[in-house]
Amino acid sequence: MASAARDKAVSYREKPFLVGSAILVAEQDHADGAERYSTFASHNYTPFERVRVGGAKRCAERNALSGAMFESKNGVVVAITTVSRETSTAPGSDSHDVLHPCPGCRTLLRQLMLQGHVKENTMLCSVNDAAVEKGGTPVVEEVKLKDVLDLYKDDPKVDVIRAAQNKEEWQTMSSKDPAFQADLEALKMDENFTEPEG
Ligand SMILES: [Zn+2]
């Protein structure tokens, strides 16, 4: 499903950067209390050539998560799968055997975790199938989301993300604390970040 979604990915990088994602969501049916499962798939999408910085970039997992949150307001993400031939989101960023979520998606995942839509034990299954074209086998990394997020110690801390979602907390925390300021600067790098009004 993630692989089929990738076939529709739109990228203008010199070497196209193509990612597909599929996510599994569990939701309690309010009528009979039974748990229902649904899947959402998407791919990365860049609308225009040369507009890669800022809000134009849409990651595969971000699109799939947006679709899931749009459709099922009480859903809990059980698993996120991504498939790609890449090993890092951008030149200079951390490279792994498989592609990990970009900084903006990691912030989104932490936000969704605060809201309960994503859990620490949500499985993140990242597949790199770059070798398959040459007859090799894909690299598969299957880990708990928390373990992947914990790898990125320099990301904005979760209390900063929480403060950014709440005007009162924001005003309390926007102090002279240098650690907070550093995290805030990192958070502002996220294309989807908006400061609470007021
Ligand atoms: Zn991303």
Q: Mind explaining what this structure looks like?
A:
- The protein is an alpha+beta fold and 198 residues long.
- The chain has two domains: 2-154, Cytidine Deaminase, domain 2 (3-Layer(aba) Sandwich); 156-198, no CATH class.
- It is built from seven helices and five strands.
- It has helices at 2-6, 60-71, 103-114, 145-149, 158-164, 167-173, 178-188, and strands at residues 19-28, 35-43, 76-84, 118-128, 139-144.
- Strands 2-1-3-4-5 form a five-stranded mixed beta sheet.
- Helix 5 crosses helix 6.
- The mean pLDDT is 82.
- The structure holds zinc ion.
- Zinc ion (ZN) is lined by residues 59, 62, 101-102, 104-105.
- The site of zinc ion has 6 residues, from helix 3.
